[in-house]
Amino acid sequence: MGANYDAIVIGGGHNGLTCAAYLAKAGRKILVLERRHVLGGAAVTEEIYPGYHYSTCSYVVSLLRPKIIRDLDLPSHGLEIMPLEQSFQPLHDGRGLVRWSDWEKTRRELARLSPRDAEIYPEFGRTMVQMARFVKPILDMVPPDPGSLDPRGLSDLLRLGKRFQNLGPDLQAVKYRMLTMSAVDFLDGWFESDSLKAVMSVSGIIGTFLGIRSPGTAYVLLHHYMGEIDGAFRSWGLSKGGTGGISLAIASAARSYGAEIRTESPVQKVLLKNGSSEGVVLESGEEIRARVVVSGTDPRLTLLGFVGEENLDDETVSALKNFKMRGSSGKVNLALDRIPDFTCRPGVGPHLFGDIAIAPSIEYLERAYDQAKYGDFSERPYLNIVIPSLTDPTVAPPGKHVMSIFVQYAPYHIKEGPEYWPKKREAFGDAVIDTLSEYCPGIKEAILHRHVLTPWDLEQEYGLTEGNIFHGELSLDQLFFLRPSPKMARFRTPIENLWMCASGSHPGGGIMGAPGMLAARELLRTRTV
Ligand SMILES: Cc1cc2nc3c(=O)[nH]c(=O)nc-3n(C[C@H](O)[C@H](O)[C@H](O)COP(=O)(O)OP(=O)(O)OC[C@H]3O[C@@H](n4cnc5c(N)ncnc54)[C@H](O)[C@@H]3O)c2cc1C
């Protein structure tokens, strides 16, 4: 039977949609199949309670590639990103620290904790920007295969080596340190204030089941310094209407180029003939054929789930099983009647318009990790909080608010087993609110609705294997030509005509769109589709 489509994309997450949009723009006949009733995957907006629009999973954006915004003309499809500039950290001792986008204001704040750190902080920022500039082009390239003699790959590797040489000895040393050290050890080399190092180190552990003292986390810290919105380097933002606005803008672009998108269409398996993909079978039993199937779900679900272990070689199966997907985070979304005071800085001031980090000390974060190591959620976790309704009043009824709380650690593998999570869900939610109450005592009375997502829920509802928010940890051993394994690092799989285009591929998770764009580029370049 002939193919109905040039390509079927499994999953309407933002990467699947990006891949579909580029392929459709190149004139290919594309079908996107999404399991849920709503598009976006982990970049989604949902009205869980009437009038309250939650960015249920991801909540801030910084890495979305400017090229995608331009190529797909996303503003004309409704994309609007509002900057989110400051970072507020309440401390144990009743003090608070705000790091503003204005260096001078930050210097004055920091001087109260450590005059020495206040002086060094701008230099640290400049060094990180230089480091990120070195690493950032990697986000936009297909990873070369270091074992191959392909001239394209070799010239990419040579260019990388040349850029490393151009960094000069001082920055080369910084780079080596970042590749090998823990976030805390690396920051120890710069700062003396424990609370400053604590709040800065958390970027190294988000979405990974590692502690801030685990080697390799310094590099992940850099991954979080690489953001840019529309070309403005190192900035974070909120998508108007919630992060689902990004996915819907990409979907609208894809449709405008002719892509067909179906929701409530769960794929059950990939159709195989002689080791090659021919299309998909939906859970409804419907069979749809295409020249190529591109999976926008994670590598394990794609291959062990849709293809099946019995159709894969041992090496692939073991690579997939060893790919670290262990989820470590959860989310609590609140509908609020009002915004209560934070004890250290009462009032609804500009300090609340950025993110709020509950990460008061290194010891606090280490204790949070200790509990997770032994199979439980942290009773006093790291929280990253945003109140989007302050910047974007469209997401809540007039005078009301939504609060988004990202929580770590919430290990998927709890000691009772992951399927026990539903019984612990509310206790986990209570621990989050109790933690926040210590800094914001009126929070409990202000809550109208509470929506708690454990890693188990992230797997069941959003299709994230083991609840991993990035389709696989962003640790050094799982990045670049190792993501998800050396043999599958260039969006291909061992199954002919089955490709991958989501966060489990290079350059990884986060609302970036890069895997979707690069997979489409590679599919077109190789004339696979
Ligand atoms: C709680 C949480 C907080 C986060 N916070 C941030 C943040 O603030 N900023 C940031 O940049 N990143 C954040 N992330 C990470 C980011 O959201 C993800 O890395 C990114 O959205 C993943 O996009 P994707 O398109 O690769 O995959 P996904 O969004 O996972 O898309 C995969 C799609 O496949 C669908 N699917 C699954 N199974 C099937 C099937 N059988 N048939 C058809 N479709 C199927 C899913 O429903 C989903 O729509 C967060 C993630 C989570 C979970």
Largest sheet: 7 strands, mixed
End-to-end distance: 18 Å
The CATH architecture name of the largest domain reads: 3-Layer(bba) Sandwich
Number of strands: 20
Average pLDDT level: 93
Q: What fraction of the residues are assigned to beta strands by DSSP?
A: 15-25%
Q: What's the name of the CATH homologous superfamily of the largest domain?
A: FAD/NAD(P)-binding domain
Molecular shape: globular
Taking all Cα atoms into account, the compactness measure Rg is: 22 Å
Give the helix proportion (percent range): 25-40%
CATH topology of the largest domain: FAD/NAD(P)-binding domain
Content-based structural category = alpha/beta
As residue ranges, the low-confidence spans are none
Bound molecules: flavin-adenine dinucleotide
Spell out the key features of this protein:
seven-stranded mixed sheet; 529 residues; 3 domains; 20 strands; alpha/beta; FAD/NAD(P)-binding domain; single chain; Polyamine Oxidase, Chain A, domain 2; binds flavin-adenine dinucleotide
